Amino acid sequence: MKPILHKILIIILLMPLASTLVCGSQASVSPDHPVYDFLRRMETKGYLRDLALYSGPHSRNEVSGLLQQIYQHQKVEALSDYDEWYLIKYLAEFSDPRTGPLIAEEYYELHLLRYDYRNWTILGDLRSSLSNRMAPDREPDWQYDLGGEVRADFYRDEAGNSLGGYLRMITRAEPAEPGAEDHFDPEEGVPTIHRGGIANTNWVHTGIVWESDLGRFAVGHDRRWWGRGIIDGLQLGSSAPPSTYFRYVADLNRLRFTFLIGGLQTGFGQRSIAGHRLEWQPVRWLQLAISETVVYGDTSGTRGIELIYLNPLYPYTAAEPMAGNKDNNTSSIEAAVFPVPGVQVYFQWFLDDLTLTESFTEYYGNKWGLLAGTHLTDPMGLPTTDLALEYVRLEPWVYTHQNSVNRYQHFGGSLGYPLPPNSDRWMARIRKGLRPGWQITGEWQFTRHGAGDFTKSHKHPESQPYVPKKEFLQGEIGRSAMVGMKVEYEYFQHSYVSLRYEYRMEEPEQSYSLLGVGVSIDY
Questions:
Q1: Which of 4, 77, 14, 67 is nearest to 40 (CA)?
Q2: In this predicted structure, what is the pLDDT of residue 4?
Q3: How do beta strands 162-175 and 510-522 pair?
Q4: Is 241 left (phi over 0), alpha (psi -120 to 50) or beta?
Q5: Distance between CA 419 and CA 182 in Å, rounded?
Q6: Directed axis angle between helix 60-71 and helix 81-93, to 10°?
Q7: Hey, which bits of 436-477 come out as E strands?
Q8: 277-286, long-range: CB < 8 A, 24+ apart
Q9: Rounded Cα–Cα distance for residues 326 and 491 (Å)
């Protein structure tokens, strides 16, 4: 057997057994990883400016490169002891496992399994977590995760080429209503099996990544996201369940281009997505991005893949009419400004549909969303502190489509921001580092939602002699608010214990408190 076939066979045989394993530099980094909070803090403070930060998923190799930029900054010596501790910790964690960390051996990532074969190294970790939210007169709302990840990488050669694969699998158990039935309808969410009053769900993230001077090519089943909101961006959000895709990324100094195609799950026909994103940094204090997506499907099962959407350079605004003008085409404009170190101001304007000849605010066919916010580091002289303020607005019928198969959804949830159309949200989040490993976070949200959801689109009847008007928050308005506080302690590498309190208010006049505790381990 040829050596390369031998290597591939080893990976294929190991991956099905990898629900308790972890490894490699090309493996994706979950959007929930705390390294993103650190990178965003360093970006706002002026130690990092890189377009890659807001177009994921990111490989461990990419994250390592971002951390190296901070480490090599000319003013890195001015970092506080707190920020320096996290920089050293993450540099060690994301270092090449074959060569070991550059510094701080005590922070080097530990692995449950390691297997070396010529140029290949396979690493494995076990991951488990348990959380429970409790409230008076309510059943405990607990969640238990058990699984892990396997990573296998052919490390970079002299020409800069590298190949890697990864598989992350988590089995999640949650309480369920007595007698609940299994469901496999994508409109009801991800497939869930019920046993003994417990709902069990499998979450899988996997991919094969080839990186060279030509760019980064990835085939995987994972979460993917664009944008920089506190919770999510408006066009592609990390909150959506994983989906299968092909992704190409080209980094061209101050330009970054992303091409994405993939499949989506729906209960009434085949659904696919394609997207382009171009990011540009003309000067160090300004970042711009334009992006577009198209969701298209067919309830008959005869349409198949639309070849015109597979061209990475063909604008979808022109391609959609060529495909029959029946698909869900969206676009987005983003900007981030860094006026002074410690301040970031950003916005995103999302366009689902736009008709310039009609009223921008009243015409039912003008469907758009707005996200605007600011991120401050060490505000008012408070050290080791981050403050984020944000407003999100989704006009009526955003994300909907007259053809149900083209809704902007995957497994019944939004592909973009996790709010239904005709909603808005104000929110603030403040995080204080008490000492290395200890953090306290406070959060406030106020949300409004009018009539409508993803299933209710609107179309002007041709026989109707007038153009109907939309009104933001039209219909009966529901309001909800949340105030929360969380204390978290990292007692071991990637292993946390947390305590969270939430006070929630929902109309009509319903309020309650939740106390949450959580513990996780990663080895």
A1: 67
A2: 37
A3: unpaired
A4: beta
A5: 26
A6: 140
A7: 438-449
A8: 277/55, 277/226, 279/51, 279/54, 279/55, 279/255, 280/51, 280/254, 280/255, 280/256, 281/49, 281/51, 281/254, 282/254, 284/49, 284/338, 285/337, 285/338, 285/339, 286/335, 286/336, 286/337, 286/338
A9: 53
Q: What b/e readout covers 47-66, taking b as 16+ CB neighbours within 10 angstroms?
A: bbbbbbbbbbbbbbbbbbeb
DSSP output for 121-168: EEEEEEEEEEEEEE-TTS--EEEEEEEEEEEEEE---TTS-EEEEEEE
Indicate the DSSP class of residue 119: T
Residue 314 tokens read as 């063909």
pTM for the model? 0.89
Residue found by looking up tokens 């890659």 in the block: 52
Radius of gyration over every alpha carbon of the chain, rounded to an integer in angstroms: 23
Count CA within 13 A, CB hemisphere, residue 23: 28
Q: Which two tokens stand for residue 335?
A: 């900007």
Give the three-state DSSP class for 54: helix
Give the length of the chain: 523
Show pLDDT as tens, one digit a residue, over the chain (523 residues). 443 333 333 333 333 333 323 334 788 999 999 999 999 999 999 999 888 889 989 998 899 889 999 999 989 999 999 999 999 989 888 887 766 655 556 667 778 888 888 777 888 889 899 999 887 777 778 999 999 999 887 766 666 688 889 999 999 999 888 888 898 888 888 999 998 889 999 999 999 999 888 899 999 999 999 999 999 999 999 999 999 999 999 998 899 999 999 999 888 778 899 999 999 999 999 999 999 999 998 877 677 788 999 999 999 989 988 888 889 999 999 999 999 999 999 999 999 888 777 777 788 888 999 999 999 999 999 999 999 999 999 999 999 888 888 889 999 899 999 999 999 999 999 999 999 999 999 999 999 999 888 887 766 555 455 556 788 998 889 999 999 999 999 988 788 999 999 999 987 668 888 899 999 988 7
SS3 at position 100: coil
Element (H, E) at 175: strand 162-175
Beta bridge partners of 495: 492
The sign one gets for the Cα dihedral 304, 308, 311, 317 is negative
Cα separation, 437 vs 497, whole angstroms? 11
- Give Cβ neighbours of residue 219 (< 8 Å, ≥ 6 apart): 207, 208, 245, 246, 247
Counting other chains too, the contacts that 498-503 makes at CB distance below 8 Å and 24 or more residues apart are 498/131, 500/133, 502/133
Write the DSSP assignment of 375-405 as a string of letters: EEESGGG-TTEEEEEEEEEE-TTTT--SSGG
* Per-residue burial over 214-229, b = 16 or more CB atoms within 10 Å of its CB, e = otherwise: ebbbbebebbbbbbbb
